[in-house]
Amino acid sequence: MNEVTKGKFSIGFLRRLVELLSEGKVRLEDFKKFEEGGFVKYEKEGLVGSPPRAILEAWIEAKKDSSGMLVAWTLLGFSSYIEAHENGAIEIYSQGMVDINFHISLAIQPLFDRELKEAEKIGDKKKYDELVQKWIEKTEEIIMGLSEGKDFEECIDMEDKRLRRTLSLLRMIALYIKYVREIAERISGKYGFEVKHYLKPHEDWDFFYSAFNSSGMSEDKLLEEIKKRADAVREAQRLGVPGISKRYLNDLRKKLESVKKLED
Q: Going by CATH, does the domain composed of 11-97+193-242 fall within 2.30.30?
C-alpha cells in the first residue's frame, strides 16, 4: 500500500478515485488531459438532451511538484465536489441545493424598498448605490450568522413591520435552515463522522460537506474515507429539496418524519 504523505498524491491514486466514485463506469483515460506549467487538468464531456448537446460532465485540476506528485487537486463530478489541499486537508461537498443568497436577499428587500424608490425618483444615483450596497451587506451579515450556527430568527428581526410583505418567505427560510441542519445531524449520527450544512457569504448556494485530514493515510484507507464521506453528503442532499416553497418544505418534513420512524 502506498502511504500518502502530507498533501502528496500519485496519478495512480487519482485513477483509482475516479473509478471508485463512478462505480467503475468511468476511467481517468476517458478524460481529455491538458498540462500547463505545474498544473494538469482533466476534462470529460457528456451528452444530454434531445437533440444531444455536449456538456462538461466532470473535471479535475491538480497542482504538481517537481517530482510529478500531486500536491493539491480539485475534482468536480459524480455528484460530488472534492478539494484536496497541500496541508493534507480534504473537503467533500454535495452539489449545490438552494440559491439561499437570492432567497434571503429577496426576503429582506422591504427593509430598503422605500428609500430605494425615493433615491430613484429624485435621480440620486450615489444614494441608490449606497442603499444597494447596504442591502448586499445585510444579506451577507445574515448568511454569516447562519454559518456560525445562529438560528435564522437571531439574524433578522421577524417582527419588523417593514417585513410583513415577505414574512411568509422569511418563515419558510427559517424552516428550511432548521430542516437541513437536522438532516446534517442525522447523517452525522448514521455515519459516525461530522457532516455539516455549509453556507458562506459571497456564495449563492448552500451545500452539505464533510472534511478530514489525510496525512499519513495509505491510499487504500484514503480512498475508503473519501468514498464514505462522499456517500454521506450525497445522501444528505437526497433528503433535501430543490427549492424553498411550501410544497418542497412539506415534502422535506415528510422525509424527516419517515427517517425518524425508521430510527425508532
A: no
